[in-house]
Amino acid sequence: xxxxxxxxxxxxxxxxxxxxxxxxxxxxxxxxxxxxxxxxxxxxxxxxxxxxxxxxxxxxxxxxxxxxxxxxxxxxxxxxxxxxxxxxxxxxxxxxxxxxxxxxxxxxxxxxxxxxxxxxxxxxxxxxxxxxxxxxxxxxxxxxxxxxxxxxxxxxxxxxxxxxxxxxxxxxxxxxxxxxxxxxxxxxxxxxxxxxxxxxxxxxxxxxxxxxxxxxxxxxxxxxxxxxxxxxxxxxxxxxxxxxxxxxxxxxxxxxxxxxxxxxxxxxxxxxxxxxxxxxxxxxxxxxxxxxxxxxxxxxxxxxxxxxxxxxxxxxxxxxxxxxxx
Length: 326
What we know:
By secondary structure, this protein is an alpha/beta fold. The chain has helices at residues 10-21, 38-42, 71-83, 86-94, 97-104, 106-122, 155-168, 172-185, 200-215, 235-242, 248-257, 263-291, 310-323, and strands at 2-4, 27-32, 53-57, 63-68, 144-148, 192-196, 220-228, 298-302.
């Protein structure tokens, strides 16, 4: 499970993690549940249907499949599996009853979304289910499933909703379904990974989210610090720049030597940028110090200037694997 505050690059990190886990000829499934089609965009694909589709092959012979879970489609599948009521469910859909139910009871939607994701985890060879797009009667069996989960602010509620449903429905298919989902989510093999940046608000949400996830009995995995910037200058230069102490005259002379136009103005602008850069890194250093107190592994992912293209995604996957993502 990969979560993070909006803007931290959660979906990108989830995709890179899926690629990293597919190394060595393995097969992973990357699942999204927010209806944004973020996975399709990252991999340069058309919008994903409610169906597992291969989106990438790794250089090491692995494969990454993706699934965009839709609550309505998941409900129809649920009604068919447990009650043989797919036709009735389709009628409810036409009347808008499904959307109405999942709107007034958000927990229902979360049960459906988590249920579909964990179903892929519980598969075993020999399961007989509907065929996939290549016509096989066997579902894909994955070495790992990565869920691009909702943001940190509601991750504990999202993942724990099945425990609440299982408690309300004491017997029957709904109870059994919710109990199986929670058994998978609380398994030692399942972990919630937090994506953050070196900024105050995402970091505080990460710290709060870790406490909330622990409180409901779930496993915390790693903290992935995304968009880490390297200093452009030596430490002593950065320290002076953070205090606004920059030798502007030396900058002017250097710019004149390169025959740049308007060296005085450019020197002032460069000095301002150096100061901003140094102060940002000083703030990030303080935030990193806060994160160092977390009793979980921490990975650092560098800032990428351009849009994340597939090549950059593979590079990020290699970096995660080198830091211990297995």
